[in-house]
Amino acid sequence: MSQDILINWSPQETRVAVVEQGAVQEVHLERTLERGLVGNIYLGKVSRVLPGMQSAFIDIGLDRAAFLHVADLMPNIAAKHATPREKPAAVAGAEVNAPVAAAGAGAKLLAPNPVLPIERQIFEGQALMVQVLKDPIGTKGARLTAQISIAGRLLVFLPQDNHIGVSQKIPPAQRESLRQRLVRLTATADGSPAGGFILRTNAEDASDEELVDDTAYLRKTWLRIKEAATRQPPATLLHEDLNLMQRVLRDLVGADTQSIRIDSREQHGLLSGFAAEFMPDTVGKLHHYSGERPIFDLFSVDEDIVRALSRRVDLKSGGYLVIDQTEALTTVDVNTGGFVGARNFDDTVFRTNLEAAQAIARQLRLRNLGGIVIVDFIDMVRDDHREAVLTEFRKQLARDRVKTMTGGFSQLGLVEMTRKRTRESLAHMLSEPCEACSGRGVVKTARSICYDILREILREARAFNPREFRVVGSPKVIELFLDEERAHLAGLSDFIGKPISLQSESSMTQEQYDIVLL
Q: What is the mean pLDDT of residues 399-418?
């Protein structure tokens, strides 16, 4: 299936659309101010060692010093495999290929040992290669580790270890064969390992060629980081986690990709340089888009994004989907709508469900919905219709690069499936809970609010003895008090023996109100 990738770049935001057969299938975005530091590798400088907390503060060039605990120092390989009595008393001076560098350019790399107190492993002023585990939050600095890992599309590279592992999410029966295959593919010319690797979940069905390419990319990246550590001063960024455009080249581009068009000449040049160094096969597919129309207008991407934020998705036949995303799961309801068909009711339902199966698979990718998904297709009487719809649904889901698992029809006629969570959904990235309804999707009626106010005044009158009660509320609520609820308001005023005045406040939502005691 042919694929085109469109990249819309601006200083504040990068947006990527994946187009297959002329239809937008995926949308990815990254905002400059919201991009975190997790994964970045720095040559830090130890600014303070805290023996009482077994931690240290590391200067990595940010406003606040970052935090490193002794458990996040790189263990010495000999100490890790020795018995408790055999573990060496001091290994801080051992010269191994580990992440701690002595101060000064060209220094040897050192391996700290977490069985030793932190003050015997590192010292103030020392240069130390570290990686960000957690972004700074509030007044807290970033959390660091000296155990470096570099993520690729299919593998995670552990340059300071020789461990070969497989993701725990891959079925146990397949893990050992995949591990042996990875050992063979990652061995150096003399057969010895050069760093450790972990096979990621999405590499379960990867070819040998894809794994070898990812291995080469990761080792090349590590060599560049080590080389930078020998010539850069402390508190310097050595390696920044890939930005969205670079991840697109690494993760999304394949043999079916026809072109990658980007609307920024400067970013096209930078991306071309990155591709030439790490992914030369993609260089010929990169093109600078210089048309007068915005690049996303070519395939109406912005319109698809707007529709992807709506609960309702209209089908071409006249039917429609209703998609509701909750904390626990996502539900999809299929309805015939205005589609009446041309032959009989069973045929109408079958055709609507077939079209819905295609649309649902696309919406899951476009909205990036993950976790449990429950699909309520329209009830079908015939077993062959149910099987055909399920087959079509699985066929469409097979095009998704994110792993999915689909069950059959349940006794209640529902289809249960799961889709791996890879990032925030499109709705969570672009929107926030409504201030009026707090994300409920509904608000109380104006009449309900009027009755809430009447009850609240009665409670206040029993507890306090003000001269007057003043109700401040939204225009719609105040208008209802002045019209249809006027008699109830007057009756309450007579009952409590206090005047009740009204004040309209246009800035208030329908559910907001204040009762002022005067």
A: 90
By the 8 A CB rule, do 130 and 144 touch? yes
Please tell me the number of Cα atoms within 13 Å of 511 on its side-chain side: 9
Q: Per-residue b/e over 86-101, b at no fewer than 16 CB within 10 Å?
A: ebeeebbebeeebbbb
Q: Positive or negative, the Cα torsion across 216, 222, 223, 224?
A: positive
Strand-by-strand arrangement of the 404-409 sheet: 312-314, 320-325, 329-335, 371-376, 415-419, 404-409
CA distances, 365 to each of 160, 212, 270, 278, 401 (Å): 36, 28, 28, 28, 9
Residues 457, 452: Cα–Cα separation, whole Å: 9
**How many CB atoms sit inside 10 A of residue 360's CB?**
24
d(CA 373, CA 369): 8
Distances (CA, A) of 437 to 73, 432, 476: 47, 11, 16
> CB of 385 within 8 A of CB of 420?
no
- Give residue for tokens 């109408």: 348
- Return left, alpha or beta for 39; rule: phi > 0 is left, psi -120 to 50 is alpha, else beta: left
Alpha-helical runs (H) found in 111-158: none
CA 118 to chain centre: 35
How much is the pLDDT for 107? Answer: 36
Structure tokens, 41: 């590798």
- Residue 85's pLDDT band (cuts 50, 70, 90): very low
Confidence of residue 170 (pLDDT cuts 50, 70, 90): confident
Q: For 299-357, list the strands marked E by DSSP.
A: 312-314, 320-325, 329-335
Q: Contact, 102 vs 93, CB < 8 A? A: no
Residue with tokens 């990036």: 368
Q: For 195-210, write each residue's pLDDT tens digit.
A: 899 998 778 888 898 8
